[in-house]
Amino acid sequence: MPEMISLEEARSLVLSHVEPLPTETVPLLDVVGRVSAYALTSDIDISPFAHSAMDGYALYAADIEQANEQNPVQLKVIAEVAAGDWYDGSVEHGECVRIMTGAPIPEVLDAVVKYEIVEPVEGDGKPGSTVSFSAPAKVGSNIREAGEEAKAGEAIVEAGEVISCAGIGFLAGCGIVEVATYERPRVAIISIGSELVDPTEVPTGGKIRNSNSFALAASVQAAGGIPDILPIVEDSEDALADAVKSACATHDFVITSGGASNGDFDFIKPVVERLGELLMTTVNMRPGKAQTFGIVDGKPVFGLPGNPAAAYVGFEMIIRPALRKMQGYRYFERPRIKARLSRDVKKNDPRRIFLRSTLYKNDEGEYIVAPARNQSSGLFGVIQRSNCMAIMPEGLESRTAGSVVECVLLDVAEELSL
């Protein structure tokens, strides 16, 4: 039987037994938040032409280099260019062109002065008018050059990069409407326990609703996977073995909840050992000491405890990183931040403890972490109201209010480095 290992060893063990899934090509909108499997290149320069960054007047910067409040320079407006139009006529010194945001700059002109600081002298500022400039403009002012953001054939997204919402717009502008990404893992979720009933039922006579399956399915979905809640399995080793075997045939990852300890009706460990290779049974953490992991028919099988907090912490700290690796992500750990405890915390368990907590800033701008008063591993509501987990390191050292502890952020993406 495998011995109790550290959280880092557990995470490393699980990560070493999963690999990125095969790639698939999906429509552009379906790749938001996912990983590009290959480098992507633009088919044109972005922007394909030099254009105005604002509404104003395009001109020769040299024509107004001596302009000031006392001696403004007047130019004649000879044309107007709107976005989508093109002006290829001649422009002489002493002339300018009224131009709109996004409109192409006439090739010979080298600066744009914004509309608000130009005074009409004759006319309304449109073609045929004369306008006055009371300050000089630098060459290139308010002009976005052709190819400023990307050149044709240049890599605009690297392999392994996560595509954001803004990235979708960038790719569309580069002519890319499909992207190769890694398949999302199909994850089977099996709750174990003869006491469980469906959430649609009103529990009676010692029964409880099967809430873990839904929390885990939501966690899988949040991690990018595709959850599949399978039927509840009664406390029977043979029934569980059949369910796990069947799930491994149709899914990329199998998660069970319940039956992970050493009681008379805890069967996930013997089932994994019977069907495949048992690699892990306990992790030096609380909640969630009982964490079963093994390989069955080439598929990872992870047995979480039945207590909600224990299952949630085990998922966040070990399973979520594995699911991310299967989708090609580069970062596997949530960001951490240091904060001062809002109250004393006594420690009577030598394991590393994850306290469900709320992180906030005080009036002085310091990060404060407030551990929930009730840390029972059987509660979902406390996790719902938490945005982090305060970490009490291994050992029996208690902490007093004001002590600095490390916190795992639960609502911040792994890609953010703090």
Describe the 3D structure.
The protein is α/β, with parallel strands linked by helices and 418 residues long. It folds into four domains: 160 residues, Molybdenum Cofactor Biosythetic Enzyme, Chain A, CATH 3.40.980.10; 53 residues, Molybdopterin biosynthesis moea protein, domain 2 (Alpha-Beta Complex), CATH 3.90.105.10; 94 residues, Molybdopterin biosynthesis moea protein, domain 3 (Molybdopterin biosynthesis moeA protein, domain 3, Beta Complex), CATH 2.170.190.11; 74 residues, Beta-clip (Beta Barrel), CATH 2.40.340.10. The strands form seven sheets. Strands 7-4-6-5-9-8 form a six-stranded mixed sheet, with no helix packed on it. The chain has a six-stranded mixed sheet with strand order 16-13-17-21-20-18, with helices on both faces. The model has no long low-confidence stretch (mean pLDDT 94). Keywords: Magnesium, Metal-binding, Molybdenum, Molybdenum cofactor biosynthesis, Transferase. It catalyses: adenylyl-molybdopterin + molybdate = Mo-molybdopterin + AMP + H(+). Its EC number is 2.10.1.1.
